[in-house]
């Protein structure tokens, strides 16, 4: 019998191996095996519980029938055993297996029921042996195979039933044994075949459902979370913002912040996207740590992040928190490959205290505060205020007027001379943009230039002003240059630089008479692109000046990488000349630096004789400011030059 058992076990394994291999392969390749096991248990549970109900009900009937048909010792034995079977089945059904997710419980339940059914059949055959009813053992194997929670339940139960049948048949004589040998073999193969097919079908269905659920969760994650940082994405952020606004309508409060990284793009360009991705992940982690449980951190895209902070905070509290965030972002990032990166972040805050304001309106104000921070306080927090509201409203009006105006007619240029103290003569004029709007009247340059930059119209404005400047230059003496300002957007756009180059070539003016001024902030926005743009202008023969040097993030480390010809020293140092000796020392240091690098210098904003005297003492040569002349129209330049020449002639005569 042991050899027959081993043979049947081996055949069973062979029959079920394809199903097992396929299931195992699917588990390894697509889903979490623990989740799949749990779902398999949930799928099998109704079968085992159904077995409890059916067997329990059946043995209630059997118990009643025993009461009518059994006598003597058989009556209490068979009635008690069948009654116990029914009681245990319903106990397992209602208590032990209810909502269970344990495979072990289902296996124990199956073994208990199998053993009780087996005991009922064996006891009946012992008391009333009937060869015809040996077939019940085969029926038991079918029940075991189709209702077993696992093969650990099916195999021992089935083999026990068949072996018992063979033993009883053998005791009844060879003819009975011969009659039941093939019945047992057929039964065992039929049972195992049914078990394999049923279990494989159930497990395939469960596997498909688990995979579908996993894909649904993954799709949900992709729909609501950023794949790189794991933070809520733009879509999820707007959902949270709508909830916060709804809660605000019920008396809640929150603050909104937009964060933009300063200096991220150069790191991404120099070290590659893998390092850039690692940097963004670490930024997300630092923002999470700063916000904690007090709000939501989201990545809106690129290097832009957003925060929704629960509760009400004062302006000072927001600035303190913003400073904490900026300090955290400014700490050195140690990334893969030994890369140590340094960036900063600008933050724009807005309160939710304005009733009836939509999410887009709040975002617009936070974005303006962020824009203000990047333009004026890079790497620092700014809280949106009533003054910003007025400016933004003005910008909105200016933006719409810019789009609908005849800028070719309304824009014009004024020119401020740059004087060489050595020769006491003008060597260049800086072209300064002006706008006399037919609808708004005179609009300040800082207002309409910023509005043009934000709206994307700045490239068109630049070309209009450049053409007007070059027309004026044609009327000047050949020794005079024009200094023209470019915006950060001009430098970032290859198309814009190409149009500027075409305009210079079409003017017929010697490019050496044209000097393009760029600010430090414009350079730092995208340093490599800016250097490339300046190289194209320099290749034509134009001069390059670095404007407002010392007012922001001046760094001697990048000056040598620029094709610069001149540095313009910011007026902020001039205003301190008569108050602090350090300002004079700084100006002298910059002048000496220019001399060592073979660069010209020009000092802006000189207005008094006392300031000019101090600058002469430190070796200043080129000066620009109200002391010599205020900005003038193109038609006034000839008279200015004539007066200057007359003064020079008078000095020579004296």
From TrEMBL:
Keyword ATP-binding in record: no
Domain GGDEF residues, every copy: 252-386
Gene3D superfamilies: 3.30.70.270, EAL domain (3.20.20.450)
Recorded superkingdom: Bacteria
Pfam families the UniProt entry points to: EAL, GGDEF
Membrane spanning residue stretches: 47-69, 75-96, 108-129, 181-202
Keyword Cytoplasm annotated: no
EAL domain: residues covered: 395-645
UniProt xrefs under CDD domains: EAL, GGDEF
Keyword line: Membrane, Transmembrane, Transmembrane helix
The protein's name: EAL domain-containing protein
